[in-house]
């Protein structure tokens, strides 16, 4: 009986261990400020000598500045991830500011490594994400200033400014380096391009439609 309980407990412990490893591991020290000068290749970034760490390693300035939205999307993401703020290394967290011109969109995309929680600081945003196969349910809502919405890790999501003026959002992401896969760019803008036979069959359209889309990138 005792043996069975020990076995069961080991299995439970093991599964929690595996669950934890599906996300960024817990730090084993107070911090590990990214050392961008190191040539070492590790999962994340090597640690700067703790004796040389300064407050500036944990700080970023400029998130009060609007991003330039004069582009075809009509939006601009200003990231504060480990590349901009080295102190985020190993901490499993980062943030972005997103600016939207009227009717600007942050096009359908996914973060392979992060859940995102977003709040609207100014304006009004339609947001949404799509659940995975086979349902592909669209979960969508219009947010006003002060509203908060969460995009679960890995799911395709988007935002659109549906107000009359500019919109601004701040979002936190559960990775030091969430990654972005923009669907249109990945599917139609890869280099080299995915074969038009494959895309024509996948999207059930004529190859000319595929060429037209690929030519946009
Ligand atoms: C915004 O971006 C556009 C397009 O790249 C550029 O022409 C314009 O000068 C930029 N505006 C500012 C204020 O930087
Ligand atoms: C729109 O934004 C996405 C994500 O920032 C970017 O990958 C894409 O190139 C942009 N598309 C255009 C047409 O500017």
UniProtKB/TrEMBL annotation:
Please state every residue range assigned to the domain named Cupin type-1: 61-211
GO CC terms in record: apoplast
The record, for Pfam families, names: Cupin_1
Localisation: Secreted, Extracellular space, Apoplast
GO terms (molecular function) for this protein are:
manganese ion binding
Which N-terminal stretch is annotated as signal sequence? 1-22
Which residues bind oxalate per the record? 106, 111, 116
Q: Which cysteines does the record link by disulfide bonds?
A: 32-47
- Residues binding Mn(2+), per UniProt: 109, 111, 116, 157
Q: Which UniProt keywords apply?
A: Apoplast, Disulfide bond, Manganese, Metal-binding, Secreted, Signal
Assign the protein's first listed, main location to one coarse class: secreted
Which branch of life, at top level? Eukaryota
Protein family according to the UniProt entry? Belongs to the germin family.
The name this protein carries in UniProt is Germin-like protein
* Species this protein is from: Sesamum indicum
């Amino acid at each position: 009986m005792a043996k069975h309980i020990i076995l069961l407990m080991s299995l439970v412990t093991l599964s929690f261990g595996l669950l934890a490893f599906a996300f960024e591991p817990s730090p084993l020290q107070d911090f590990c400020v990214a050392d961008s000068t190191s040539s070492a290749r590790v999962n994340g970034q090597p640690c700067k000598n703790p004796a040389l760490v300064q407050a500036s390693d944990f700080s970023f300035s400029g998130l009060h500045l609007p991003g330039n939205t004069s582009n075809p999307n009509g939006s601009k993401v200003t990231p504060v991830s480990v590349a901009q703020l080295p102190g985020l290394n190993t901490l499993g967290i980062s943030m972005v500011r997103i600016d939207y011109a009227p009717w600007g969109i942050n096009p359908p995309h996914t973060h392979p490594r992060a859940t995102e929680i977003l709040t609207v600081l100014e304006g009004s945003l339609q947001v949404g994400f799509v659940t995975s196969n086979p349902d592909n349910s669209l979960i969508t809502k219009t947010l006003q200033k002060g509203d908060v919405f969460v995009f679960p890790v890995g799911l395709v999501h988007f935002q659109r400014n549906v107000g009359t003026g500019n919109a601004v959002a701040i979002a936190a992401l559960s990775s030091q380096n969430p990654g972005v896969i923009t669907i249109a760019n990945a599917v139609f803008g890869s280099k080299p391009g995915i074969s038009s036979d494959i895309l024509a069959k996948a999207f059930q359209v004529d190859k000319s439609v595929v060429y037209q889309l690929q030519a946009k990138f």
